Amino acid sequence: MNKVFRFLAMCAIGFAFATMSVSAQTYKTVDYPGATATLLIGGPNPQGTSVGIEVTAGFQHGLILTAAGGFTVIDPPGSTLTSPNYVDAEDVVVGNFLDAGNVTHGFILYKGHYTTFDVPGALATALSSVNSWGEMTGFTCLEDPTCEAPPYKSFTVSRRGEITSFNPFGAVSSFASGVNAFGTVVGTYTDSGGMTHGYQLCHGNFTSNDFPGAILTFNGGINPQGEIVGFYTDTSNVTHSFLLSDGRYTGFDPPGATYSNAGGINASGIIVGFYLDSANVAHGYIRTPRREGSD
To answer: What count of Cα atoms within 13 Å lies in the side-chain half-sphere of residue 7?
Structure first.
């Protein structure tokens, strides 16, 4: 299959099926030592590195987790709150941070060096992902400089640094969550009726997607095969993680979860996210497919 055909095939979608979690998965809970909350948000990259946040003594810091289980806490200079959102195959981390003036900025971390990224003229900026070509996604915050409240507007950054801002389908608010190596962008938007949906942008064409029967759908990440993860809220107002693969949705929750949110998926189908337990404590999780012949 050549690259052009593969890219076109990635854009073909259909949403006819939904199932709940399958048993052929293993889950690992991740907690940063001493933290009151641990959340995995992006990754894992091919080396198994993921990113997220940890909250200690009321302060939110960025977190890098290696495949071997090692933690590194990160904060851009001047940050009062840090949220790494994605890590690529070269260990480039992108995300956002809040400065002392309560303004949110995007950041890029590579080999220990931080670069601040702001969309020119924007009130505030957050970066959500970067692919192997250096293309990035993110969103600008239109009314709240802390980015805690909508409305938001999606944007992409080309490998040449060209910024394109957009709202799909005339949305009142949207943000781009991820872009894969083939340039397919996924994100989330809110329509004029206040309903939240997932979207995909491929070859300049938008497609909306919703988990069947859900009252809210949020696309969190996409892998090279075009598989999408995120979360949905059911009619009982309970939020679950989901995987969208080959036109089929699978909803799932780590054991003991009362809420769960999938943030990233790699080419091997390993998913990272976070969940709340019955005591309302947040934990990171890693969901790994069980291979044939494994115990």
So the answer is: 13
Number of domains in the chain: 1
Residue 158 located in a structural domain: yes
Distance of CA 114 to the CA centre of its chain: 21
Amino acid code (one letter) for 4: V
List, for residues 73-117, the tens digit of each pLDDT value: 999 999 999 999 999 999 999 999 999 999 999 999 999 999 999
- Tell me, what CATH number does 201's domain have? 2.120.10.30
Helix H or strand E segment including 130 = strand 124-130
Angle, CA of 63, 81 and 44, to the nearest 5°: 25
Categorize the per-residue pLDDT at 5 as very low, low, confident or very high, splitting at 50, 70 and 90.
very low
pTM over 0.90: yes
Question: For residue 70, what are the contacts with CB-CB under 8 A and spacing of at least 6?
Answer: none
Asked if residue 187 lies in contact with residue 198, where contact means CB atoms within 8 angstroms, the answer is yes
